[in-house]
């Protein structure tokens, strides 16, 4: 377990807060639940370091707005964003503004626990980070030109139909390429695929370039 085991749960759904509090307590964390991003922000400046787990869609202040405000006031807690909407554009935006991870509902309990453990250990050395980037880049190098073009479209937040139109292929063909990309990259979800691509720091225009 990392040195810090505090997890700040932020969700306007009482049942979700109770469920996550039970889960994380059983996993050895010290959860603290808040019913809104505003309520958490009121105490954030004096809060002990920990990991924030926040829903995306909440009244008054969304999870992404919370992340932006935390960064604005200089709080660098790792933030895991959870959504039930499966919106890849939200995943891209969350990762680009500094989310440690992005998890879609319904999620496996073990996936969330592992993501929190990773986030709390997040003070990795730069050597370790570069090792991760190198491993992802190696996987990216195994993709065909078309697979990289489809990946670039996914990371840009485009739906299959838009990618198909842009590339002049059918949506079904995009689905095939998308499945191939997921397999070659070893990604279990679209949000994980987005995270891996962003971590690699490879530019989208490079991904989409035609090698021919």
How would you portray this structure in words?
The chain has 212 residues and is an alpha/beta fold. It is 55% helix and 11% strand. The chain contains 11 helices and 5 strands; from the N terminus they run E-H-E-H-E-H-E-H-E-H-H-H-H-H-H-H. The chain has helices at residues 14-26, 37-44, 63-72, 88-96, 109-120, 126-140, 145-155, 160-167, 171-185, 190-200, 204-207; strands at residues 6-10, 30-34, 51-55, 79-83, 101-104. Strands 2-1-3-4-5 form a 5-stranded parallel beta sheet, sandwiched between helices. Strand 1 (6-10), helix 1 (14-26) and strand 2 form a beta-alpha-beta unit. It is elongated and about 50 Å long.
A few lines on this structure:
Helix content is 55%, strand content 11%.
Key traits:
212 residues, alpha/beta, elongated
Radius of gyration: 18 Å
Compute the separation of the termini in Å: 49 Å
Task: Give me the oligomer status.
Answer: single chain
Largest sheet composition? 5 strands, parallel
Point out poorly predicted stretches: none
Write the layout of secondary structure elements.
Elements: E1 6-10, H1 14-26, E2 30-34, H2 37-44, E3 51-55, H3 63-72, E4 79-83, H4 88-96, E5 101-104, H5 109-120, H6 126-140, H7 145-155, H8 160-167, H9 171-185, H10 190-200, H11 204-207
Parallel strand pairs: 1-2, 1-3, 3-4, 4-5
Helix pairs in contact: 2-3, 4-10, 6-10, 7-8, 7-9, 8-9
């Amino acid at each position: 377990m990392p040195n810090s085991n505090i997890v700040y749960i932020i969700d306007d759904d009482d049942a979700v807060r109770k469920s996550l509090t039970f889960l994380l307590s059983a996993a050895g964390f010290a959860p603290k639940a808040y019913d809104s991003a505003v309520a958490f922000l009121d105490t954030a400046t004096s809060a002990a370091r920990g990991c924030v787990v926040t829903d995306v869609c909440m009244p008054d202040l969304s999870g992404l707005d919370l992340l932006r405000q935390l960064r604005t006031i200089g709080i660098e807690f790792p933030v895991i964003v959870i959504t039930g909407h499966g919106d890849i554009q939200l995943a891209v935006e969350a990762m680009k503004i500094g989310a440690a991870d992005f998890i879609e509902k319904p999620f496996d309990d073990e996936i969330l626990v592992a993501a929190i453990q990773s986030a709390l250990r997040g003070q990795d050395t730069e050597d370790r980070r570069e090792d991760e980037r190198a491993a992802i880049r190696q996987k990216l190098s195994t993709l065909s030109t078309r697979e990289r073009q489809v990946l670039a479209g996914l990371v840009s937040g485009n739906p299959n139909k838009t990618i198909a139109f842009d590339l002049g292929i059918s949506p079904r063909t995009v689905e095939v390429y998308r499945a191939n990309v997921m397999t070659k990259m070893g990604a279990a979800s679209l949000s994980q695929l987005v995270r891996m691509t962003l971590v690699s720091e490879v530019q989208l225009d490079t991904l989409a370039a035609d090698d021919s």
